[in-house]
Structures are given as structure tokens and as C-alpha cells.
Write a structure and sequence with these properties.
heterodimer, A: alpha/beta, D-Maltodextrin-Binding Protein, domain 2, 2 domains, 9 helices, B: mainly alpha, MetI-like fold, two-stranded antiparallel sheet, 10 helices, transport (chain B), transmembrane helix (chain B), ABC_transp_permease_HisMQ (chain B), MetI-like (chain B), ABC transporter permease subunit (chain B)
């Protein structure tokens, strides 16, 4: 908002230099395909990259992508190292106390368990999840022993090496691994969690939030958001 | 040749795989780590020397400052220091710039959880290119590492200064040297041989502490090894592979082992050179051998 206020002030003074200030720094994790990942060229890629670039174009903002460790992604946002978070972050009441969210750009969907065998014990066994996620919070509430890892990749590696009986994560994150790997399978019921995925912003940044909200609405209305969802998550994904 | 990786096999596949843009970023990260060490080590030594000199100063406030610095920084866990201190340092810089650049700013800097300074006071400016942001992060990292390792170095040097035989200083006084002269001409040249074992330990620990860089937003080699080694499905890459982290970490293991081995050799040489003519066991052994 600081930038926007300054821009407004400078425009009011008749200055054209204001536009140089209009860079929005987009924070992401870069380790959660298909939402966001680093491609072979070493650049941020994925559903959120494409969506974010389109949102910026519609809101007429210049955007730049920055990667940050998942664990410190919220502290670095509130201290102003970047201006928003698009990192597959589910909207939860707990997070909304610290940062604000736009409307969801990814509908509330299922989380699922993946294991090496049908007989994996989901209630009493060891279940791996990425730290500080809604899935980790959910596992902690069930009877299972929670095993937390810093990245999603490591949770899957834990199942394959036998350290954990199952992994619990967003179904869309798990699906490509299950397709590729004959040893892995979905087990148990899907669990609906969270209020969808939204863009996180500083609570004081209301003006930027309004801009992105408007851009998301326009993408929902003309169907371009649905196209992106199908492109990255397949025909069966939930759309708007 | 690398345009269609599916058709490649064997070494040519490996060659293309190891030269992707992502791998290039990892090779750069080796440079980042080496550069960090090259800048941090002398800085930490400087901080350590300053801290030790302050701690043994006759001027009470300087002494208090030196001792507090050593005690506090040594007592706080590195990881807490890195998570808290860097964000606080960054905010302090921005706060000071804010006071200078935006005296007319009327809105609060702290709004709930948010830290908001005027746009001109941001460090770096929001519209600065990405490399400026990265260099700034790197600079903060160097400063933090220097402060942390400086405190340990200060303690080592403080001990080393006290290990120089008292007779040496008395002789200096007898020759009519001022305290300043005897400090620089007698104490400092002789203390290094006592400080060296402790300092070489610190250097080894510093080499191994570089993965903390990622906490500061600088992508270091361990981050890339984890990222590149993780399982990759063909949908998101031209070079799908299973969990290869063990190979990447093996490469890091070899890198770190070679690096520490070279360091040991260098330290052994320095130690031999510093012991020359000293009234220590090593110096005495050199004298007898000669």
C-alpha cells in the first residue's frame, strides 16, 4: 500500500516518475508442484506463476517473483520483504489473524492420504505432513503420530523409505506422484480441509488486496481461471 | 543437442541434465558460499579482535561492552539469532532511513503485525532489480555471521592475549615501551600462536554453518541439493528422476571434506610459521630440529 499511496500522491502532483515504484514482489515457495515449482531453467513456474502473472497484467502492476522458505514465509511478508504470498496457502482462521487473504483462487478441495499399501494404518500409524500446513494440523488431531518435514518432497520420500506409513497432503500435489509411481496409492477417504487457497497480503495493504480481488473476480467471470485450473490440475479438478 | 532430452541416453543425457539453468544456479551457489567465507572470516576476525581488545580495556564502559558482546552472542542459539536478529537488523536500518527520509510521514510504522516504512526508506527499494535484493540479503548474512563468529573469536583471542607469558610484557615495560607500544609490538605478534587452534576450530565450524544462509533467503548449496535431488515427475521437467538426494548430498559431503582438508593443511603451515622462535613447546621442538 505504501507504494500505492506514494503513487497516488505523486500522480496528484503531476509527476510521471510514480510508475517506477509500482513493483509488486510476489513471494512463493517454489517447491510445491503443480502450484509452484522451479523449472529446469531455474525460474518459478506452475499454476500460481501463470495465474499471478495474469492477475498482475489485469491489475496493471509490474510483478517480480521471489522464493522464500515455507517456514518463514509469513514473517518475511509482514516485515515487508515482499508484498504478497502465492504459495498454495490455504485460507484458515489462524493465518487470517496475522495476514489478510484475497478471495480464493483455488476452490476448497480434498486432502488425501498416500501410502505404499492398502493396509496402512491412518489412525494409529505414523503419518508424514509438511510442517505448518493445515494437513499437519489435521494429522495432529487424529490418533496418528505426526512426522513433520520442511518440504512436500520429503514427506513422500519418508513414505517410500518406510519411515512413515502414509503421507497426508493436498490431493493435487500428490496426484502426479501416484500416477508416476506404481508403488504409491491413495488410501482411505479424502478429507475436505481449509477454505480454499488465496493470496496472502499484509493486513494494512487493503488497496493492493482490492486490486487483486477485482482481478480474481474478473478471471472467475470470464472463465480464464477455470481454464488455468484445468490446464494444471486436469479435467477432473473442481472449478468455479 | 539438449533440446529433446527424451531421445538422449547415457553420458549425453547426464551432460544435458547437469547443465540445465537450475544446475547452473547450484554451481553459482558454490561461489556464493566461498565468497561468504572469504568476506566473513576476516570480518569475524576483526570483530573478534575488537571484542577482545575491548574486553581487556582499562576503560570500564569499553570493557563492559566487550564482555557483554561476548557473553550474549555466545549464549544465544545460532538459529534463534539468525531468525530474529536479521529481521530486526533489517527493520532497524529501514526505521533509521525512514526517520531521515520521511520526516512528514503521519501513519504509524507498526500496524498490528505489519512493519510499514515509507517507500523511499525501504531497503532495498521495492523497484530495485532482484540482484540488488539478493546482494542486500547476502550483506545481511555476512554481517550476522561476522557478529556471531566474531564473539567466539573474541573469546579465543581474549584467552590468547592472556596466554602470552607475563615476562614478555614486563620486559617490554622495562625497555620503556608505553602500554600501547607493548600491546602492538609484543602482545599482538605473540598471541596468534595461542589463538590459532581456537580460530581454526571456528573456521571449520563456519564452513559447516553456511547452510544457515537459506534462513536468510540466500539460496545456498544445501538448498539446491535438496531441491534438485527431490523426486521429479515428467509433467514438470524434461529430466524426470527418482529421489536422488543421496547423490547430491554425497557430492556436498565430498566438497566439504576436501574443503576442510585443505583448510587443515593451510592451518598446519601457518601454525609452523607462527611457532618459529616462540617460547612454546612447538617453537622449542623447531629449535631442536634445526
Amino acid at each position: 500500500m505504501k507504494k500505492l499511496v506514494l503513487t497516488t500522491a505523486l500522480v496528484a502532483l503531476g509527476s510521471t516518475a510514480a510508475f517506477a515504484q509500482d513493483v509488486v514482489r510476489m513471494g512463493t515457495e517454489g517447491a510445491y508442484a503443480p502450484y509452484n515449482f522451479i523449472n529446469d531453467a531455474g525460474e518459478v513456474d506452475g499454476f500460481e506463476r501463470e495465474l499471478g502473472d495474469e492477475l498482475c497484467a489485469r491489475a496493471e502492476l509490474t510483478c517480480e517473483w521471489v522464493t522464500n522458505d515455507w517456514d518463514s514465509i509469513i514473517p518475511n511478508l509482514v516485515s515487508g520483504n515482499y508484498d504478497n504470498i502465492m504459495a498454495g496457502m490455504s485460507i484458515t482462521a489462524e493465518r487470517a489473524e496475522v495476514i489478510s487473504f484475497t478471495q480464493d483462487y483455488y476452490p476448497p478441495t480434498a486432502s488425501a492420504y498416500v501410502a505404499m499399501s492398502d493396509s496402512a494404518d491412518l489412525e494409529g500409524g505414523v503419518v508424514a505432513a509438511q510442517a505448518s500446513t493445515i494437513q499437519a494440523a489435521h494429522v495432529a488431531e487424529t490418533g496418528a503420530t505426526l512426522l513433520e518435514y520442511a518440504t512436500g518432497d520429503e514427506t513422500l520420500a519418508a513414505v517410500m523409505s518406510g519411515e512413515a506409513d502414509a503421507v497426508f497432503a493436498d490431493k493435487d500435489f500428490l496426484a502426479p506422484f501416484v500416477e508416476e509411481n506404481a508403488d504409491l496409492m491413495f488410501v482411505g477417504e479424502d478429507v475436505p480441509l481449509g477454505g480454499g487457497i488465496g493470496m496472502g497480503l499484509r493486513q494494512s495493504d487493503t488497496e493492493l488486496k482490492d486490486k487483486f480481488d477485482a482481478a480474481i473476480t474478473s478471471m472467475k467471470e470470464d472463465g480464464s481461471l477455470n481454464e488455468l485450473l484445468i490446464k494444471w490440475f486436469g479435467e477432473e479438478t473442481t472449478t468455479y | 543437442m539438449c533440446s529433446d532430452p527424451d531421445t538422449l541416453a547415457g553420458l549425453s543425457w547426464l551432460w544435458c541434465y547437469l547443465t540445465t539453468g537450475k544446475h547452473m544456479s547450484m554451481y553459482w551457489a558454490f561461489g556464493t558460499v566461498l565468497l561468504l567465507l572469504a568476506i566473513t572470516a576476516p570480518m569475524a576476525l576483526l570483530f573478534g579482535f575488537g571484542g577482545a581488545s575491548a574486553a581487556r580495556s582499562k576503560f570500564a564502559p569499553a570493557r563492559w561492552f566487550g564482555k557483554t558482546y561476548i557473553a550474549v552472542v555466545r549464549g544465544v542459539p545460532d538459529i534463534a539469532f539468525f531468525l530474529f536478529f536479521v529481521i530486526a537488523l533489517d527493520q532497524l536500518f529501514e526505521y533509521l532511513r525512514h526517520q531521515v527520509k520521511c520526516p512528514d510521514w503521519d501513519r504509524p510504522i507498526r500496524q498490528g503485525n505489519d512493519f510499514l516504512v515509507c517507500p523511499q526508506a525501504k531497503l532495498p527499494l521495492n523497484n530495485a532489480p532482484q540482484w540488488v535484493h539478493e546482494s542486500y540479503g547476502f550483506m545481511l548474512a555476512v554481517l550476522t555471521f561476522s557478529i556471531v563468529f566474531g564473539a567466539f573469536a573474541a573469546n579465543v583471542i581474549y584467552g590468547a592475549m592472556r596466554s602470552v607469558p607475563r615476562g614478555q610484557m614486563e620486559t617490554a615495560e622495562a625497555y620503556g615501551m608505553t602500554p600501547r607500544q607493548s600491546f602492538w609490538r609484543i602482545l599482538v605478534p605473540q598471541m596468534w600462536v595461542y589463538a590459532l587452534p581456537g580460530l581454526s576450530n571456528l573456521w571449520m565450524v563456519l564452513i559447516k554453518a553456511t547452510p544457515l544462509l537459506f534462513l536468510l533467503g540466500v539460496e545456498d548449496i544445501v538448498y539446491w541439493a535438496r531441491e534438485l535431488g527431490g523426486q521429479k515427475t515428467p509433467r514438470f521437467t524434461d529430466y524426470p528422476h527418482g529421489d536422488w538426494r543421496v547423490w547430491y548430498f554425497l557430492a556436498l559431503l565430498i566438497f566439504y571434506l576436501c574443503f576442510t582438508k585443505v583448510s587443515e593443511i593451510v592451518f598446519a603451515r601457518i601454525s609452523a610459521r607462527l611457532s618459529h622462535g616462540q617460547a612454546t613447546a612447538a617453537g622449542e621442538a623447531q629449535r631442536k630440529a634445526a
